[in-house]
Amino acid sequence: MKETIALPKEVIDERFGVRDREGVDIEILGGTSGVNGGGFVYTNLDSLAVGVVLKLPKLGAQQLRPEEIIANLKAHPAIAPLVEGGEVKEYSAHVIPEAGLSMMPKMTGDGLLIAGDAAAMCLAAGIWLEGVNFAMASGMYAGEAAAEALSKGDASAEGLAGYERRLNETFVLRDHRKLRKAPSLVLSDRVQHLYPDMIANTVERMFRVDNPSPKPGLLRVMNEERKRAGVKLRDLARDTIDGLRTFG
Hints:
By secondary structure, this protein is α+β, with helices and mostly antiparallel strands. It has 3 domains: 2-92; 100-184, no CATH class; 188-247. 46% of the residues lie in helices and 16% in strands. It has 11 helices and 9 strands. The chain has helices spanning 9-16, 56-60, 66-74, 80-83, 132-151, 162-169, 171-178, 182-186, 189-207, 218-229, 233-247; strands spanning 2-6, 25-29, 37-43, 47-54, 87-92, 108-109, 112-113, 123-124, 129-130. The strands form 3 sheets. A 5-stranded antiparallel beta sheet has the order 2-3-4-1-5. A two-stranded antiparallel sheet has the order 6-7. β8 (123-124) and β9 (129-130) form a beta hairpin. α9 (189-207) packs antiparallel against α10 (218-229). The longest helix has 20 residues, at 132-151. The two termini are 31 Å apart.
């Protein structure tokens, strides 16, 4: 879901520290009123785009409407000064297949090739948020495979097999295979709700002066905050390993 908010270019330039045709993109993990997902704010020439990406089962399991969640994001102390005085010009929403490799269909059939978001080629991996590049590449490879099949007079699934070969040999499926665990990890309850509290409280305690009590040390603080957040040690270890294998 996204709102387009009109603001004069000079106001945007001053608030975001940009000039000419420069821009800023702010990506947020969480910030979605308890619904698993994330938010974003990015600049256009004379408007801002402010929105949220929400996990549908979590959205449906609570009472807030999407526009209320966006309103809550806009009211956040870090976001409110950026959108202050803006006028909402457009509201839009759409569904994106973001489960990655785990929800991709069979790419070929007799006389059939599937590409782009119809083939679930949207990468929602926390660090990397991509999709148009995969759509363009898969469309190009679909065209090449179709031309190859037609030149041989064979538009069956077997004749169109060059499409999947091209996808497997290039960044299209290589990136999705490497990051296959990223969507479930990034949108998990632990990453969305438990770890932020654990990390924020750990950092706060490390910089807090508690004299005359001696400083407890980082490992002790981390372990205490892990327990307070309700994070099991085995889950933390598993998520750390998955994160290193995915993003490392």
